[in-house]
């Protein structure tokens, strides 16, 4: 359990992967961080372990897998920034156990996903993907068969969160009836109606769109049994996570004609970079729109995400604030001018605060402010002391056996 002093900003190593928008680097530089290494693509295996070894902060998108093993190699890592919504690519518990908060951007790309899906709804219900594919091959499929207006049709939204709700509102403006299924009771927006079970939603919808996170409960939530329950000639859209749909079962249902068309943006296995081949049982099916995980990839979303997450990393580095961390006790802090701030991350066991207060009192260290928050197995105490007492306060904190890591902000 070693102490982590605050470093000069130019000694803080920041590793940015997956071609983050330049806004991320701009924010970090404006905040005084100059030691930034940016990569266009993701890193895997030994390359990732080597790169993360000396990083104090890392920024990733949905591709980079920060497993327990990778995190165990990141001895200096203070925080992880997911420049996206999903945080399933990070072992959040392993990060918390190592005293590493994980931040994300919960809103910035949601509109982009909702807009893409709205466009796909119209395209699918007109049979455009197939007509387009055929035209590229010189075939002329002028026909109204299987081609429908969306007005008056039923859209079933699975997962009525930030994206699902926006999609529902947009679809209603086109005259669609919106129903949704969610594990939580949700306030319906517009004229949307919550249905009690997934099967009810599947049986009633002309088009189903999935907007749930990757969790154990959403794994393969759409498999052959669920596809059979969908109306004959209906459509499926998945812009959530590749684990949510049994992709082989979807390919069979589309090939058999029971599902008239699909739009899929996320896959169980996605290429690691734009140079790698994309393999999927859905390839070659003309009535399936395949997109390379670009639901959130718009200039507007990426620019905002860069600002939002880089800002959260800089704030945590500068003042210890963990507001909106997804795996960590949340503390919102102002600046600490004139005093030093100690950030003590510890195992959440009884008696840690007493030990700190007792040790400080014995050494005559006056605590002028103290905040404690806990989440699960992790406790986070932020204290302010006179700057000339910061070193001895740090030494005391390092003697407490529940300490995971300590930082001082001078
Ligand atoms: N394709 C892309 O580029 C993008 C994909 N995403 C994916 O979309 C997902 C959803 O994003 P948001 O709407 O912002 O998330 P959110 O957290 O606001 O909403 C998710 C909703 O799903 C519900 N839910 C969770 N488990 C469920 C279950 N088993 N059955 C039914 N409902 C369940 C939750 O209660 C919540 O209402 C993200 O977790 C991410 O994986 C997000 C952004 C871009
Ligand atoms: O925000 C998310 O969860 C996404 O899926 C978008 O991921 P990306 O930033 O495009 O790798």
From TrEMBL:
<keyword id="KW-0560">Oxidoreductase</keyword>
<comment type="similarity">
    <text>Belongs to the D-isomer specific 2-hydroxyacid dehydrogenase family.</text>
</comment>
<dbReference type="InterPro" id="IPR050418">
    <property type="entry name" value="D-iso_2-hydroxyacid_DH_PdxB"/>
</dbReference>
<dbReference type="InterPro" id="IPR045865">
    <property type="entry name" value="ACT-like_dom_sf"/>
</dbReference>
<dbReference type="InterPro" id="IPR006140">
    <property type="entry name" value="D-isomer_DH_NAD-bd"/>
</dbReference>
<dbReference type="GO" id="GO:0047545">
    <property type="term" value="F:(S)-2-hydroxyglutarate dehydrogenase activity"/>
</dbReference>
<dbReference type="InterPro" id="IPR006139">
    <property type="entry name" value="D-isomer_2_OHA_DH_cat_dom"/>
</dbReference>
<comment type="pathway">
    <text>Amino-acid biosynthesis; L-serine biosynthesis; L-serine from 3-phospho-D-glycerate: step 1/3.</text>
</comment>
<dbReference type="InterPro" id="IPR029753">
    <property type="entry name" value="D-isomer_DH_CS"/>
</dbReference>
<dbReference type="GO" id="GO:0006564">
    <property type="term" value="P:L-serine biosynthetic process"/>
</dbReference>
<keyword id="KW-0520">NAD</keyword>
<dbReference type="InterPro" id="IPR054480">
    <property type="entry name" value="AHAS_small-like_ACT"/>
</dbReference>
<dbReference type="Pfam" id="PF02826">
    <property type="entry name" value="2-Hacid_dh_C"/>
</dbReference>
<protein>
    <recommendedName>
        <fullName>D-3-phosphoglycerate dehydrogenase</fullName>
        <ecNumber>1.1.1.399</ecNumber>
        <ecNumber>1.1.1.95</ecNumber>
    </recommendedName>
</protein>
<feature type="domain" description="ACT">
    <location>
        <begin position="341"/>
        <end position="410"/>
    </location>
</feature>
<dbReference type="GO" id="GO:0004617">
    <property type="term" value="F:phosphoglycerate dehydrogenase activity"/>
</dbReference>
<dbReference type="Pfam" id="PF00389">
    <property type="entry name" value="2-Hacid_dh"/>
</dbReference>
<comment type="function">
    <text>Catalyzes the reversible oxidation of 3-phospho-D-glycerate to 3-phosphonooxypyruvate, the first step of the phosphorylated L-serine biosynthesis pathway. Also catalyzes the reversible oxidation of 2-hydroxyglutarate to 2-oxoglutarate.</text>
</comment>
<dbReference type="GO" id="GO:0051287">
    <property type="term" value="F:NAD binding"/>
</dbReference>
<dbReference type="InterPro" id="IPR002912">
    <property type="entry name" value="ACT_dom"/>
</dbReference>
<dbReference type="InterPro" id="IPR036291">
    <property type="entry name" value="NAD(P)-bd_dom_sf"/>
</dbReference>
<dbReference type="InterPro" id="IPR029752">
    <property type="entry name" value="D-isomer_DH_CS1"/>
</dbReference>
<dbReference type="Pfam" id="PF22629">
    <property type="entry name" value="ACT_AHAS_ss"/>
</dbReference>
